[in-house]
Amino acid sequence: MKPPSTRWLPLHRLTAFCALASVGLPVAAQSAIQLTAAGTVFDSSPYTLGFAFSVTTDMDLVGLGVYDHAGDGLEAPAQVALWVGSATLATLSVVVPGGLEAQQVGDFRFAPVAPLRLQAGQAYVVASYLDGGWASSFGLGQGGSATLDPRLTLLGNRFGDGFFELVYPGQADGDSGAWLGANLLLAAVPEPAPAAMLVAGLAALAWRRRSAFSRAC
Questions:
Q1: How far apart are the first and last CA of the chain?
Q2: Closest Cα partner for 67 from 104, 21, 95?
Q3: Do 64 and 154 lie in a common domain?
Q4: Which residues constitute the domain of residue 197?
Q5: Residue 142: which CATH number?
Q6: How many CB atoms lie under 10 A from the CB of residue 19?
Q7: Which residues in the chain show pLDDT less than 70?
Q8: DSSP bridge partners of 136
Q9: Which of 7, 85, 158, 165 is most buried, by CB atoms within 10 Å?
Q10: Beta strand pairing status for 92-96 and 152-160?
Q11: Are 122 and 198 members of one domain?
Q12: Using one digit for the tens of pLDDT, what is the confidence trace for 78-102?
């Protein structure tokens, strides 16, 4: 019997297309804190400033950053570190270059780090030290507002009085808000790619046509 005129995908190509469909397209990282209005701005030089937080699902931390007032560049390189739980020894630290060199996302400048998996339910502390420049806050009675990545739970502000270097920020003013200070760059949640969905649909259609052809033969 003459086969249908519509061509179908050979099985090995169908398998390859399905494999490609299972791979998500690259997605951009997103800032944990998106500042919509800065609180009172002040000289940041004598302080280590940041906040404590947890996450609701496992995710990758891909960058650490520091507040850049007016977005005109950092006055000096900034140290930023991450601590796990109550440990006073930093698990991860980075230097954000001064000036305009570091990547800007909103009101912050970030330095990339090797992806670090943050565990759901684990408490973390992040803070920065900038020798010169400006700092701010939100949610601490000094004005300012921000939105948070929905996967992040803010556990309260943190600061330390390290006048010459970054120190573990073991002090807090109340339970809410954050000193800015530091910020996080988080890997975004992958979403199904339209191209992958199209490939999957074509693969299913090709399979049905192949089955129909086999029955006709």
A1: 6
A2: 104
A3: yes
A4: 12-22+193-216
A5: 2.60.120
A6: 10
A7: 1-27, 190-217
A8: 180
A9: 158
A10: unpaired
A11: no
A12: 999 999 999 999 999 999 999 999 9
